[in-house]
Design goal:
237 residues; alpha+beta; PH-domain like; seven-stranded antiparallel sheet; three-stranded antiparallel sheet; 5 helices; FERM domain-containing protein 3-like; Band_41_domain; FERM_central; FERM_domain
Length: 237
């Protein structure tokens, strides 16, 4: 049954190396499980929740061969926006939210969409009244755009964000400051609060070591032959 479900709903994702997985949310941390694995064993947790997710994000979602695969990326990014992984400034968040409104509600209708009609829709992790007002303002300007058009606009906007494809993990830097560490197709990124502080491109990464609780990245800058070493310590969780 598992294989049939996977073949029916995700026949193309493996082909483009964007595998759908089962994400179990027992304890506080999700666990990635390949959907084709057999004989899976899980801890005795009730309830045990499963969800299909995208694990590897393509650098350019518009180079994907199949529309259905690109749509799965769109759905995942909507989830990332809701869960706070796809973080962006309030203006960008309002634009992304407006695309979702246009896709789900259609054109703005002053007779139907009265007052703060966004308040009952959960689109962002931190959805303030200010952002909701900006969403409605942008939504009015999207008249006559089809779901396919706004999904495309959403993907273009989301793929340009620093947090695109990043699942940030809490760590501490060499000075003991709380930061967040993540990786995506561009390289290794660190965030302080919700602001990106550094990005080490993959071409700059010479080696990665993990010693005890210390994550060490050896960097080489092409304009300078000297090697820089950065150490990051995972937070105790």
């Amino acid at each position: 049954m598992e294989d049939q479900m996977y073949d029916k709903h995700f026949p193309l994702i493996v082909d483009v190396l964007v595998p759908a997985t089962l994400d179990t949310t027992f304890s506080q941390n999700g666990k990635w499980v390949w959907a084709l694995n057999a004989g899976l064993h899980f801890p005795d947790v009730d309830p045990l929740q499963f969800s299909f997710r995208v694990k590897f994000y393509p650098p350019d979602p518009f180079k994907l061969k199949e529309d259905i695969t690109r749509y799965q990326i769109y759905l995942q990014l909507k989830r990332d926006l809701l869960h706070g992984r796809l973080y962006c400034d309030p203006n960008a968040a309002a634009q992304l939210g407006a695309y979702i409104l246009q896709e789900e509600l259609g054109d703005f209708n002053p007779e139907e969409h009265v007052g703060n009609y966004v308040a009952d829709l959960k689109i962002l992790l931190k959805q303030t009244t200010y952002i909701e007002e900006k969403m409605m303002e942008f939504h009015e300007k999207l008249k006559d755009q089809t779901p396919e058009q706004v999904e495309t606009a959403f993907l273009r906007k989301a793929a340009c964000l620093d947090t695109y494809g990043v699942d940030p993990q809490p760590v501490k830097d060499h000075a003991g400051n709380q930061i967040y560490l993540g990786i995506n197709h561009t390289g290794i990124l660190t965030f302080l609060g919700n602001r990106r502080t550094t990005r080490y491109l993959w071409k700059q990464v010479q080696n990665i070591n993990y010693e005890g609780k210390m994550f060490i990245v050896h960097l080489v800058f092409h304009e300078d032959p000297r090697t820089k070493v950065s150490d990051i310590r995972p937070s105790v969780r």
